[in-house]
Amino acid sequence: MFEIFSLPYADSIQLPLASGPGPILVIITGYLLVVFKAGRKFMEHRDPYNLQGVLKCYNMFQICYNIILLFPGFYFLFVFQPYNFRCMEVLPQDHPLKNWERSISYAYYINKIIDLLDTVFCVLRKKYVQITFLHVFHHVLMPSVGYLIIRFQGYGGHLFFLCSFNVIVHVFMYGYYYSTIDGKTVHWKRYLTLLQMMQFVFMFGHCAFTAMQDECKASQGTLFLVSCSSAAMFTMFANFYFQCYMKKQN
Predict the structure, then answer these.
(1) CB of 124 within 8 A of CB of 43?
(2) What are the tens digits of pLDDT across the range 170-195?
(3) Is 10 a member of any domain?
(4) 73 is in which domain, residue-wise?
(5) Per-residue pLDDT tens digits for 37-58
(6) What are phi and psi of 29, to 5 degrees?
(7) What are phi and psi of 212, to 5 degrees?
């Protein structure tokens, strides 16, 4: 089973934080230690930090980052049209558009690592109630699966299209976060949750559709991994939606 890790990298160019399992394992381990142990110990006898200014800058950065990802991503998909949408395979290493595919996919992967700061800010503000299993599972899953896909499948391909939809969701999500920093009540939170649920249905459906194409050589392992992740995330978001908006509470 472990012989799979002796296989050469799917992409011939190994970029920082994606060139081996060490960096992402250290980052995820450090993240979990800060969230559940070291961070809480550090804040034990301290008042919550007022991070309004930091959060405004961070959320605006995330909005801009995702918009910057979105435009070249859509230009790549719909102007260059490098993929057959019935079967989106990773471009060959010598393809003239390979650098586009690699650069945009890598920027998305790095953004999933930056997203871990969401939880760190919760710790510094002592907003422990927001650090749910769903929250931590999602933040650990994205960079971990991202590394595995880069390692064994390469950059882009089938997931390029799905991640483009996720980028749209994140623009709205961080826009919502920015709107609530000053304590304002924003009434479209439930619709944001529905949008997040819809993306997982879309991801699962697109994976199933791709898997049904008999002549498609897209990675079956990747399709299976993304399908399982999407199903798990949809189930947890649906439970969150039920608990927050449908269940009668005292």
Answers:
(1) yes
(2) 999 999 999 888 877 777 888 999 99
(3) no
(4) 15-246
(5) 999 999 999 999 999 999 999 9
(6) -65, -45
(7) -80, -10
